[in-house]
Design a protein that fits this description.
Layout lengths: L9 E4 L3 H4 L3 E4 L19 H11 L7 H7 L9 H11 L2
Antiparallel strand pairs: 1-2
């Protein structure tokens, strides 16, 4: 059997399931496009974020969990041109 799926942005949190038997519902982070600086987004979405998104989409950088959490705007598991365009629209409305 499989667990029932939850509507985005909800997700099952089974991190304590085998320790305490607790199954919880968590909230997935919603991508905001804030990719710069690389090691810790600064809450400002600007041209530096677009540049990093382009580098990720072109394969010039390899995204980690931090970059995917902030830059995967459409939640498809990759940072691609679609995500770049969405981030660019935030910077240049």
């Amino acid at each position: 059997t499989s667990a029932a799926s939850l509507s985005y942005p909800l997700q099952w949190d089974d991190s304590q399931l085998y320790l305490t038997g607790e199954l919880a519902v968590g909230v997935q982070p919603i991508a905001d496009g804030d990719l710069a600086p690389w090691d810790g987004p600064d809450t400002n979405i600007n041209a530096a974020d677009v540049l990093i998104a382009m580098q990720l989409a072109l394969g010039l950088r390899t995204p980690g969990a931090l970059q995917l959490a902030h830059g995967d705007m459409n939640s498809d598991g990759v940072i691609n041109l679609s995500d770049v365009l969405q981030i660019q629209q935030i910077v240049l409305p």
